[in-house]
Amino acid sequence: MNLDATLQDHTALCSQIYDLMIEENRHLSTAGTPPDEVLLERKRGLLAALSPSLAGLRGAAGGDPSPETRSLIERAMQTILKALLLDRENEQLLLKTTIARRPGGIPSRPAASHLQRLYGRPVVP
Fold first, then answer.
1. Where would a tag sit more exposed on the chain, N or C end, judged by fewer CB atoms within 10 A?
2. Closest by Cα among 36, 37, 42 to 13
3. Alpha carbon of 110 to those of 85, 106, 119, 120: distances in Å?
4. What's the pTM?
5. What does the pLDDT read at residue 4?
6. Residue-range domain boundaries for the chain
7. 22 has pLDDT over 80
């Protein structure tokens, strides 16, 4: 397979991953819950396809790229950068949803009298 075809396949895969990340972002933003197992399984499948795609790129690379090839490379890089930014936002949203779902939240500061009973000695302010 030549470099242009490999780049087109790789760019298409990156676009699919980006579209799935947009779907994950919508779910995290609207539902406020972590994504379901179906979405995570789709994500794992696409990410597993990324390694062979990268290996294909490494095998097809070589020489001075043509202007069309440079355009494909630029488009792939833009898609990857957008996906990385969206992934960071998804991680922050996921963190917020998991912290909000934790029972009890952050424990309150214990009273001095409680500490005094636990340790059997007076608390010095």
1. C
2. 42
3. 40, 12, 13, 15
4. 0.73
5. 84
6. 3-104
7. yes
